[in-house]
Task: structure prediction
Amino acid sequence: MINVYLSGEIHTDWRDQIEKGAQDLDIVFTSPVTDHAASDDCGVAILGAEEDKFWHDNKSARLNAIRTRMAIEEADIVVVRFGDQYKQWNAAFDAGYAAALGTSLIILQPTEHDHALKEVNAAALAVARTPEQVVQMLRYVSDGTLPK
Result:
């Protein structure tokens, strides 16, 4: 069984596309909490309210980091998606952490991000443009099958 962590952009259905395309493979998928409000507010929901937004965010960031680090450390492959909208700083951290651990890393990004992500891409073993390409990579890694 291959453990794949799907990190990064949370505003499109790219995770669903990959999971659906790979449903016949022996793969377990994990991901961060993709409910934006739950992710942003987990710290104060569990540890109590904060008047200062910095400490509100800090509590949540630390709890999310526990989940993320654990998932990346358990993963065989980490797929990190950089989308068209928003600055995904957490995705850059996840990519760097996976690379530092020596975990196989696939970056999923549009071509217009090539220059901005050149260092991230250099740490990856593959860069994909579409979720379908990621599925094809996972299929090849899993059973050696090439796309038809």
Summary: The longest helix spans residues 53-74. The chain has a mean pLDDT of 95. The radius of gyration is 16 Å. The first strand starts at residue 2 and ends at 8.
